[in-house]
Every structure is written in structure tokens, then in C-alpha cells.
Design brief:
The complex is a heterodimer. Chain A is built from 13 helices and 15 strands. By secondary structure, chain A is α/β, with parallel strands linked by helices. Chain A folds into 2 domains: 115 residues, Aspartate Aminotransferase, domain 1 (Alpha-Beta Complex), CATH 3.90.1150.10; 258 residues, Aspartate Aminotransferase, domain 2, CATH 3.40.640.10. Chain B is α/β, with parallel strands linked by helices. Chain B is 36% helix and 11% strand. Chain B is built from 15 helices and 12 strands. In chain B, the strands form 3 sheets. In chain B, strands 1-7-6-5-4-2-3 form a 7-stranded mixed beta sheet, with helices on both faces. In chain B, strands 10-12-11 form a 3-stranded antiparallel beta sheet, with helices on one face. In chain B, strands 8-9 form a two-stranded antiparallel sheet. In chain B, helix 6 links the parallel strand 2 and strand 3. In chain B, helix 10 packs across helix 13. The two termini of chain B are 24 Å apart. Classes of the chains: A alpha/beta, B alpha/beta. Chains A and B meet through helix 1, helix 2, helix 3, helix 4 and helix 5 of A and helix 1, helix 2, helix 3, helix 4 and helix 5 of B.
């Protein structure tokens, strides 16, 4: 009998008796003999708690990545996670609860989502947000589909300076023969080519999708992009880095119609890529086209305020083939991590995190440019991530830096053999930054 | 009732302090700088903790009591697994790390994939899908790609029974496929003749939950999957109900070609108030070339993360799946082993059949022609005629300290109550739930207002969903 099952032999026999069968096998009569498994599954023998802890510590020991000093972003960021977050997340009441369909016994989840929606809307400069999506990239794809529904046009423009992984996800979601996806090139400054976008928008498009700051860290002119796409009756989708929004203007105030992004930087562990959480915000005229769950405030029978899932007629369990998305389970617990993160850092602390990322990234950039042979790849202002060109192979430099205890930036082969994209979060100290610069300098001198 | 966090805010309060900036500042150009404050709350850690702990006390949860949500498999979530998934060197690794620096994580992913293939009877797996619905999407896209590759790209129909989960038709739309609904027969199973008449040269795939959403095993499964194969389609199993047949029967042996598993149902990982889940997809060898990015391979030099290949359906998420969830699912399988994992389903079946047997004198159970699997569907249609709806019964259960079953689904049963106790409930807690259900059935006859007025023992009384839509309030208004 396993540790998960409380009903042993005695209880099972008693229950089978009430059911009115001779033995357990009588319950299997609906399963044809031909498809019943003969024999046992070929799985490892059971492990006790003690053994499993040892086994997992062995796995952990084979993960050297966690010990590296991280200068890599590209969609996942090494921010500090306040310890109070996990205290709340591991409360049974939050992590073992189901989707809040029975609102009267789910007010904790529902109110925290309402607060999450509020914070996401405020951060992005929009006036509505949903309860979350799977991750930042799938949120972008769902936003693109949303604009297609809203405009009844089948073509979208996608910035070439969007995270290539996100472009992949858009294609996975939209390459079903119904849609056309055109990529807008970026210029030598690292920003989307608005003239090219203007030309591609001719004939009507559902949306222009851009990233802000873009994949390379450069700060796009959202207002100009919004004006452009609105002239063509299309919508602007902005994939934003939430931390950056602590220092740069909210896209919703610059004309964006849908703002999405990856919530991982707000209190969610790197965890080799997941679970993460996508956010999605929009304005009144589009909110009924949004995918996913939405929480609204209402009243109970005594007139007291309370919260429920609302606008559910958009969703798959009611609308089926005509739903705004197939999403059901989302990443609710990670959205809860986001709302606690935004609460703990708060107005002052959140902006301070953003500013430290800005200042430290610029400091690293300046220090690197002091090294002979290192140049900036783009000249547009960046926020907290940037691309430099090394006089050596970026791939080789990454390997060398790993031996020195650093996770260097991500090589971007499309921009040249020496192209490397780096980021610095508030977690990095000046000593670590200087140490990295010195190690890289040393390596380059030896390699050139 | 708890105030919103914004109402605790006062300028200057902070919940976490940062180190003092130790590098020179670089000016933020005025044209980019955020002009107005964000509107985030300003509270101390103590205030934040009190707020969120108060909120938490307004949630029902699996550690509080029985959670009989049909098709949701609300089993106990082992505490050990939370600890394991949070071990620093497993949790703090960047998704774009070199393979050699994440061998531990890749090994867990590889071994989990192997185990899931063994459990389902398949050869290949992707762990990337974030949830069941994304697994369905991946599965249908695999089939579509396979059809394309063999010159059958014109096949644009997905057949599915009228009892299918809502995600199945919604996923088909997302995949650009047309849904053809197949009738259920008087026993709640797929009407084989109707299926035969609808399968044909446009059939891309057939989607079926087995056991189906009525908790009934599709006894004609071999015939059903054969009809689809003969018509040139492939069979997709929605694995939402896999908890019914672990170690007992395998989709790969029933003629299915691909299935998803909900690791957050069957493999004991928590639901998190709506997510994260994980919708791993297992498939037959013929679909392997089309798998999405982030497969894990074992080589002589160790484990390797694969990227999308030429034939791949692409990428579903930016990175490699809900890895933290995968750690827990692996720990679950390791704790149980081959005997223990079959025992899960055996006891799930016994618990469900026991509940059905004891409730049947009080609640109608349509389509009841033998043992159910891990869940069953009762109907409140009789009670509705007396003016008490299934919704009222669900709300009254909350007063008795239980969560409600899944209600109004499947749609082919009137006033449906879909009940799944799971194997982690003891006979004592199951009996207590049954007693509550019987008491409610009696109240409906004697004091129906107790049921229609419910709930009354909850943090709030019954909430007005119509008002929520009519007077839409989705965010806290900004204070003037």
C-alpha cells in the first residue's frame, strides 16, 4: 500500500461489498480483455522519501548552472525573489486549490487575481487585464489571434526585432493556412524599420506586433508605431518587459491596443524555463475579445462585495468551437507570485529595481566598450539589455566564461560571429560586473 | 471580507529593501522616461503577509477537505514534491544554460518522459505543453503535420463525441480544423454507427476522452480506433481521465496514436488555483519527427536538449515547458513504482463505484449500465423539477464543508453532477461526503430553501454573476 492511498485491504473489501461485486476485477468488465495490460509496467521500484531526497540532491549536484553569475536574459531574467513570496505560494489554500469556479469558497484566489489584473493594467497603462496566459510568447500569439478576431483581417506584421522564440510560437499558433505573417525588418540602429512597416501595412493588416524594449534591448518608438498602424486601421500589440516599465513609459499610454509580456521577472524562479506566466492587458473596446479567464467584482445576496470569474461566454467550456481561445488551465500560481512581488517591492521598490537594472546594464556596457575590439552592434538607446560585438567568437567566449564561473550573454549568430547580448539585473554587484569584464578582457587578450 | 491591498497603501512604506546602487548612474533620456507613477501599493512585508494570509483563509483547498470535481482529479499533492522542486540548484537555472551545466534537470526530464511513454504505451514524448489544452493543440498539430507529409493535407475534419470537453472543439478551431460531432448512444458511449457514417476522406483525426466524460470506459475502443485508421485518420486520446487506468490499460494498446496527460491531475502536482499544469504529449513513433522543440535525448556524452527540426510543429512556449511541474511528476512516479501506480487507479475505481452505489438511491445516475471508472455523472433533473437546481445542490455542499462536484458538464446529461473522489480519499471522508449528499437530498424534500439559499457558511453569500457582467469592474478604480 502506497503512502498516498488511505484505503487498505479491509476498507476496499468493505466497499466492494457495498458495490455488490465479488472482487476488484469485476470493476474492470467494461475494459475489453484485448486492451488490458498484461503484467506490470516497467517502471523503477518505489523510492522512500529519504531515498528520493538523496536522488534529487544528486540531480541538483549535476546542475552546475545555478552557481554561475548570470549576465544572460533573452526572455528569462535572474532577479531577486523576496522570500515571503514562497511562504504565500506554499500555503495549501493557494497552491492546492482548483480554478475558482465555486466563487463563494474561492474568494482568496479571486481577489488576488483581481488585484493582479489591477496591477498589470496600471503597469502597462491599460484599463483591463486578464487572469494570465501560459507565458510571454504564447501571450503574444494569443494577442495576435485576438487582433485577427477584432479586425476580421487575416494578415499581421511582426517585428523582426521580436524574440525569435516568440516569432516561432506565433507561427506555431497561426500557420494553419488561414493567416499571413509578414516580418518587418529592423534597421542598423536596432529599431524596427517604420518605413518598411508602412509599406507592408498597405492593403490592410490586423496588427503590428513589436517588442518594447525589443529583443536586443533597444527602446522602440511605440507612439510612432501606434500612429502608423492606426492609420491603416490595424491594432498595435506590444510585448513589454514588465521590469523595464518601471522606468520607461507605459505602452498603453503611447497608443498600444494590447500589451502582453512575460511575468517571470516579477518573482518567478528561472526554473529552466517554466512554469512562467504571460500577462495580457487591453482597453475597453477589445476586452471582450480577450482569451483566458477574467475576474470581476460583484456583490453577494447581502450586498457585500465579492469576486467571480466573469465574461465566461468567451471561454471554451461554454463557447466551444467559437471560444476566444482553447486555454483552460493557466499559470495562476505564478500570477499570484507576480502580485505578491509587485506588492512587496511596491511603487518605490519596483521602480528602484528597474532603475538599478538600467544603471547596471549601462555600466557594464561602458566597461565592455573600454576593451579593445569590443563595439556596440546598435546605436539606439537601450534599456537593460544590449548587444556588443566581440573580436572573438561569442560561442567560444561563453564556454571560456563558464569555466570562470559566469553565464555570459547569449550569442546572436545572426548579427555576427562575435555578437553577444547581455543583461544585468539588480542582483549583480559592481564587483561581479567588474570581475566579468576583467575575465572577458583577459580571455580576449589571450584569444586574439 | 478583506480590503484590497491598495487600501492598505501609504506613501513611503516598503516590503523589501534593495542594496544601495553601487555603480555610477546613467541618465534615462527624458523622451523615454515613464511620466506618471504606476499605482502599485506601498505596504510593509507584515502588512502584505497579513493581507494574503487573510485572503488564503477564504479559499477551499485539498488540505481542507474532499474536492470531488469530476474530470479534475483533485488528489492530494505531496508536500515532499514541493520541497524537491525548490532545491536551489534545480530551481535557479536559466533556460538558455549549456546542456552540460543542466545535466540533472535534463536527466529528470528524460526519465520522466520514459516513464510516461511506458505508462501510455507510446514511444515518443514532448514535455513542452503548459497545460492539457496546449497538449491537445500539440497533438492535433502532430496529426495534421503527419497528414500533410503523406499528401493528405486536405483532411480538415476532427471527429469527437458530443460529450467532449470544451477544450477539444476550441483546440480544433485553433488548429484550423472543423469539428464533426459524433452522437453518444443510450449507454453514454460513442455511437459506433454514427462514427462510421461520419469518418471518411476528410477525417484528419478523432478525439476521444477515455474513459469518457461520463466516467464510462469506451468498450468498443478497438473497433472505434480501427474505423478511424481505416478512414485514414489518427486517434487522439484526451488523457484528462488517465487516473482511471494507470497500469491497467494503455492508450497505445487501444489503437490511439497520441495522447496528452495532465500531470496536474493524474501525477499529483498541485492545481495552483488554476495552474500551472503540464500537458505532456506521448505519441507513436510515426509522429516523433513532428514533435515540438525542447525534446531531451540521451547520448554518449550525456543528456542533450533538442531544438525544433525541419519537420517539427515548432515551438509552443518560449522555453522547455513547466519544468518545475515536471520535477514533481517525476517524484510522484518514483514514490509509487509499478505496483503503487496501478494501485492509484484501482482505489480510484473502488472509491468512485462505492460512491455511485451509495448515492444511487438518492440521485439519478443516467447511463448506468455497469461499473463506472474513476468518476460518474449523476443528474439533478428530478430535483430541478422540484425547483432546486444542480447549482443549488453544489452551493449547499459548500455549507457542509465540501467542495462541489463539476456541474452542468457533460452537457448531454441534464443538471449534471460529475463526481470524482480520487484514490487519496479515505473511506471515512467519502462516507462523510455521501452523508452530506443524502442530507441535501432530504432537505430538498423537506426544507428546500436551505438549499436554494445556500451557501450561508462561506466567506460570502451567493454571488451575483449577472451583475458582474452588467456592471463590469475588472480593476480597482484609481483613487482621485
Amino acid at each position: 500500500m502506497s503512502i498516498f492511498v488511505p484505503n487498505g485491504k479491509a476498507q476496499r473489501e468493505q466497499m466492494l461489498d457495498v458495490i455488490g461485486v465479488e472482487g476488484f476485477d469485476d470493476l474492470l468488465t467494461p475494459i475489453p480483455e484485448g486492451v488490458r495490460l498484461k503484467g506490470e509496467l516497467d517502471l523503477p521500484l518505489p523510492a522512500s522519501e529519504l531515498e528520493l531526497v538523496k536522488e534529487f540532491k544528486g540531480f541538483a549536484a549535476r546542475n552546475s548552472a545555478a552557481d554561475l553569475v548570470c549576465f544572460r536574459g533573452a526572455g528569462a531574467y535572474d532577479h531577486y525573489i523576496p522570500s515571503a513570496i514562497d511562504n504565500i505560494l506554499t500555503r495549501s489554500e493557494f497552491f492546492t486549490a482548483y480554478t475558482p469556479y465555486q466563487a463563494e469558497v474561492s474568494q482568496g484566489t479571486l481577489q488576488s487575481i483581481f488585484e493582479y489584473q489591477t496591477m498589470i493594467a496600471r503597469l502597462t497603462g491599460c484599463n483591463a487585464a486578464n487572469a494570465c496566459m501560459y507565458d510571454g510568447s504564447s501571450a503574444v500569439a494569443e494577442a495576435a489571434l485576438m487582433t485577427v478576431r477584432a479586425t476580421r483581417k487575416k494578415r499581421i506584421l511582426v517585428s523582426g526585432a521580436l524574440n525569435p522564440r516568440t516569432i516561432d510560437v506565433i507561427h506555431t499558433y497561426m500557420d494553419n493556412g488561414d493567416f499571413e505573417i509578414n516580418e518587418v525588418p529592423f534597421g542598423i540602429d536596432g529599431l524596427i524599420d517604420l518605413e518598411a512597416a508602412e509599406q507592408l501595412a498597405e492593403g490592410g493588416v490586423a496588427a503590428l506586433v513589436l517588442q518594447y524594449p525589443n529583443y536586443f534591448g533597444s527602446i522602440e518608438d511605440v507612439q510612432a508605431a501606434a500612429d502608423l498602424i492606426h492609420r491603416h486601421n490595424g491594432l498595435l500589440v506590444v510585448a513589454a518587459d514588465p521590469i523595464a516599465l518601471g522606468v520607461i513609459e507605459a505602452p498603453g499610454r503611447l497608443g498600444a491596443d494590447v500589451v502582453v509580456g512575460e511575468g517571470q521577472p516579477m518573482g518567478v524562479a528561472l526554473s529552466y524555463g517554466g512554469p512562467y506566466v504571460g500577462f495580457m492587458a487591453t482597453n475597453a473596446k477589445l476586452l471582450r475579445k480577450m482569451p483566458g479567464r477574467i475576474v470581476g467584482r460583484t456583490e453577494d445576496r447581502a450586498g457585500n462585495p465579492g469576486y467571480v470569474l466573469t465574461l465566461q461566454t468567451r471561454e471554451q467550456h461554454i463557447r466551444r468551437t467559437k471560444a476566444t481561445s482553447n486555454i483552460c488551465s493557466n499559470q495562476a500560481l505564478m500570477a499570484l507570485a507576480n502580485v505578491i512581488y509587485l506588492t512587496l517591492t511596491g511603487e518605490t521598490g519596483f521602480v528602484e529595481v528597474a532603475k538599478q537594472c538600467w544603471h547596471k546594464s549601462h555600466y557594464l556596457n561602458k566597461r565592455l566598450l573600454e576593451i579593445d575590439g569590443i563595439t556596440d552592434v546598435f546605436d539606439a538607446p537601450f534599456c537593460r539589455e544590449f548587444v556588443i560585438n566581440l573580436p572573438v567568437s561569442a560561442e567560444d567566449a561563453v564556454v571560456a566564461m563558464e569555466e570562470k564561473g559566469f553565464l555570459a550573454g547569449l550569442p546572436i549568430p545572426g548579427l555576427g560571429e562575435g555578437a553577444m547580448m547581455l543583461t544585468v539585473t539588480e542582483k549583480r554587484t559592481r564587483e561581479e560586473i567588474d570581475g566579468f569584464v576583467e575575465a572577458l578582457n583577459h580571455y580576449i587578450k589571450g584569444a586574439v | 471580507m478583506e480590503k484590497t491591498i491598495f487600501q492598505y497603501s501609504s506613501p513611503g512604506r516598503m516590503g523589501v529593501a534593495l542594496p544601495v546602487l553601487d555603480v555610477p548612474e546613467t541618465a534615462i533620456p527624458d523622451r523615454f522616461e515613464r511620466k506618471e507613477s504606476i499605482g502599485l501599493p506601498q505596504v510593509t512585508e507584515g502588512q502584505a503577509m497579513r493581507h494574503f494570509v487573510r485572503l488564503s483563509t477564504m479559499n477551499f483547498n485539498i488540505e481542507e477537505g474532499l474536492y470531488p470535481l469530476g474530470s479534475c482529479t483533485m488528489k492530494y499533492n505531496p508536500r515532499l514534491h514541493e520541497f524537491l522542486a525548490r532545491i536551489e540548484d534545480l530551481a535557479a537555472v536559466h533556460p538558455l544554460s549549456s546542456d552540460s551545466s543542466v545535466q540533472g534537470t535534463l536527466e529528470i526530464m528524460y526519465k520522466l518522459g520514459e516513464s510516461l511513454c511506458e505508462i501510455t504505451g507510446f514511444e515518443a514524448v514532448t514535455l513542452q505543453p503548459a497545460a492539457g489544452a496546449q497538449g491537445e493543440f500539440a497533438g492535433l498539430m502532430l496529426i495534421k503535420k503527419w497528414q500533410d507529409e503523406r499528401g493528405q493535407g486536405h483532411r480538415n475534419e476532427v471527429l469527437m463525441p458530443d460529450s467532449a470537453h470544451g477544450t477539444n472543439p476550441a483546440t480544433s478551431t485553433l488548429a484550423g480544423l472543423k469539428v464533426i460531432s459524433v452522437k453518444s448512444n443510450e449507454h453514454g458511449r460513442v455511437d459506433v454507427e454514427d462514427l462510421r457514417s461520419k469518418a471518411g476522406e476528410n477525417t484528419c483525426a478523432f478525439m476521444l476522452t477515455n474513459p469518457n466524460t461520463l466516467g464510462i470506459f469506451e468498450s468498443n475502443i478497438e473497433k472505434i480506433t480501427e474505423i478511424i485508421h481505416d478512414a485514414g485518420g489518427l486517434n487522439y486520446m484526451d488523457g484528462a481521465n488517465m487516473n482511471a487506468m494507470l497500469g491497467i490499460a494503455r492508450p497505445g494498446d487501444m489503437g490511439f496514436d497520441v495522447c496528452h496527460l495532465n500531470l496536474h491531475k493524474t501525477f499529483g502536482t498541485p492545481h495552483g488555483g488554476g495552474g500551472p499544469g503540464s500537458g505532456a504529449v506521448c505519441c507513436a513513433e510515426l509522429l516523433r519527427p513532428f514533435l515540438p522543440a525542447s525534446t531531451v535525448e540521451k547520448t554518449d556524452e550525456g543528456y542533450r536538449l533538442g531544438d525544433r527540426t525541419g519537420k517539427s510543429i515548432g515551438r509552443l512556449l518560449a522555453f522547455h515547458g513547466n519544468v518545475g511541474v515536471l520535477y514533481k511528476a517525476y517524484a510522484y512516479i518514483r514514490t509509487l513504482g509499478p505496483i503503487g501506480i496501478r494501485e492509484v487507479s484501482e482505489v480510484a475505481l473502488i472509491n468512485a463505484n462505492y460512491m455511485k452505489a451509495r448515492l444511487k438511491p438518492y440521485y439519478e445516475v443516467p447511463n448506468d449500465d455497469g461499473p463506472c471508472m474513476h468518476e460518474f455523472v449523476a443528474s439533478g433533473a428530478d430535483m430541478a423539477r422540484k425547483g432546486v437546481k444542480t447549482l443549488d445542490i453544489a452551493k449547499r455542499l459548500l455549507d457542509y464543508g465540501f467542495h462541489a462536484p463539476t456541474i452542468y458538464f457533460p452537457q448531454i446529461v441534464k443538471e449534471a453532477l460529475m463526481i470524482e473522489p480520487t484514490e487519496t480519499e479515505s473511506l471515512e471522508s467519502i462516507d462523510a461526503f455521501i452523508d452530506a449528499m443524502i442530507a441535501i437530498a432530504e432537505e430538498i424534500n423537506t426544507k428546500p430553501h436551505l438549499v436554494t439559499d445556500a451557501p450561508v457558511n462561506t466567506p460570502v453569500l451567493r454571488l451575483d454573476e449577472v451583475k458582474a457582467v452588467k456592471d463590469l469592474c475588472l480593476v480597482e478604480p484609481v483613487e482621485q
